[in-house]
Design brief:
By secondary structure, this protein is mostly helical. Helices cover 73% and strands 3% of the residues. It has helices at 2-9, 20-34, 49-87, 105-120, 123-137, 147-156, 159-188, 195-235, and strands at 93-95, 102-104. The longest helix is centred in the C-terminal third of the chain and has 41 residues, at 195-235.
């Protein structure tokens, strides 16, 4: 239950294009490999109250491990949406494979590139390893993520907005400055019809800024992944 719950919420495996049968096969295969290495399990009736609470605890541990990484990818989507609205591409939408929702194309570009970075850094393998190591620090039982850790997860969810703003701020600030310049020019010389050419200029400048700032965005994303794995290790007592 702990392993399968992690596959339900972890990025890359939780997308709709990955069949549930694949996630189930991976969960069973990893569980069969890990079972001989686990500490002795408590003798508890699975259909009792204690067995139900143990099962619920395992599901919460697995879901939480993948949910924290989902927050990192949500901040990337948030940054892409802010940039798309600033440069005038908010109307250009595509289906996000991670969430299945309609998101701007700029957010989709960021999602695809960060997913490739996540795979190249073996982020999914690292999370699986941390979850398997958690069977030693958090053995199977009723004890799991306590109330203090739940509050820390809720506080850490603010990284969606903080991280997204950090990723999008260079492009948004630059485009805001350009719009201010257009406004001043239109106020000083109304006959020039500045806003008739403002949209294509803003669009081209936004694409140029996205291309120039993409390496910095990927570096910031790697740092956010590092912080997320550190927080997961703290929750799993690794």
């Amino acid at each position: 239950m702990r392993v399968s719950a992690m596959f339900v919420s972890v990025p890359l495996f939780s997308i709709r294009s990955v069949p549930a049968r694949v996630r189930l096969i991976l969960s069973v295969a990893i569980t069969l490999v890990v079972m001989p290495l686990l500490p002795p399990l408590p003798a508890v009736d699975m259909f009792s109250y204690t067995g139900f609470m143990m099962a619920l605890t395992q599901v919460v541990i697995g879901l939480t491990s993948g949910f924290i990484l989902q927050l990192v990818f949500a901040s990337v989507v948030f940054a892409g949406q802010g940039i798309a609205l600033s440069m005038g591409l908010g109307f250009s939408m595509m289906v996000d494979p991670q969430s299945g929702e309609q998101v701007p194309v700029v957010a989709q570009i960021y999602t695809v590139t960060t997913t490739l970075i996540f795979i190249s850094l073996d982020g999914h393998l690292l999370l699986i390893q941390m979850l398997l190591d958690s069977f030693k620090t958090l053995p199977i039982g009723i004890d799991g993520i306590d109330k203090a850790n739940i509050w820390s997860i809720l506080l850490w969810s603010s990284q969606i907005f903080a991280g997204g703003l950090l990723l999008a701020m260079p492009v948004i600030a630059s485009l805001l400055l350009v719009n201010v310049i257009f406004g001043v020019a239109a106020r000083a010389a109304p006959q020039l019809q500045i806003f008739s050419v403002g949209f294509p200029v803003t669009l081209m400048l936004g694409l140029l800024l996205v291309w120039k700032t993409l390496p910095d965005v990927l570096d910031q994303f790697s740092g956010m992944l590092t912080d997320a794995y550190g927080f997961i290790g703290q929750l799993l007592r690794l």
